[in-house]
Amino acid sequence: MTPTLVLVAHGTRNPRGVEMIAALADSVSAQIGTTRVAFVDVLGPSPAEVLRDTAESAVVVPAFLASGYHVHTDVPREIADSAHPSVAVTRALGPDPVLAEVVVDRLRDAGWQAGDCIVLAAAGSSDARALEEHRRAAAMLADVARVPVRIGYVATSTPTVSDAVSALREAGHPRVFVASYLLARGLFHTRLADAGADGVGDPLGVHPAIVDLVVARYREGVRSLGESSGVATEEWSPARRR
Q1: What InterPro entries does UniProt report for this protein, alphabetically (predicted)?
Q2: Which helix (H) or strand (E) holds 120?
Q3: What is the DSSP letter of 193?
Q4: I want to staple 130 with a disulfide (CB 3.0 to 4.6 A). Which of 66, 100, 116, 126 is the partner?
Q5: How many DSSP H helices and E strands does the chain contain?
Q6: Is the pTM of this model over 0.85?
Q7: What's the Cα-to-Cα distance from 197 to each of 4, 149, 160, 202, 216, rounded to whole Å?
């Protein structure tokens, strides 16, 4: 039996954000089969609850753009709590060059033009590993957009998005755009409207390239389970946690 994909997201009280994650799961399901959604915060079901209700092998794909506390701590704990015997955990979605391409698409839709300055707006984290991955994401975006990219944080870390925009204004840059390095709409994305930029790109959302990236992560997980003819041949163990 083909493993179930469990797409694990943060969670938000914004209905549009919840609908976006559901739509992403539906688009992925059209390519690979059963896809279920779980959340690590704000709302349920939790990954442990979904896994307890999953009889077949499962591939957990963390729908996060950097590997901070939720990826390194919450997801492994939830899997352990589920006591599911056959689970593989993939890498988070980001950083990845695919995301940089999608961010540029969103910026163009917001009016960005070649040469305009960019602030990459990330959620922020207290985890140094996540902050390093944000820097890698900014470098990938700079390569695609062919302009320097500054990082601004919506919460937790510094500089803030507003401060990053102001610094570029003070340096004499006439047009500054904010790239939303967020997967779905929610409180964090709403705050970006007050950053003082000339435009704000939409969150990554249900872009065809994002769907393909989730599918690629899932297939990595299937390979790690040792799939052969749709049957799992290797059980999950704590060593599989990432």
Answers
A1: CbiX-like, Sirohydro_Cobaltochel/CbiX
A2: strand 117-122
A3: G
A4: 66
A5: 9, 8
A6: yes
A7: 42, 14, 13, 13, 34
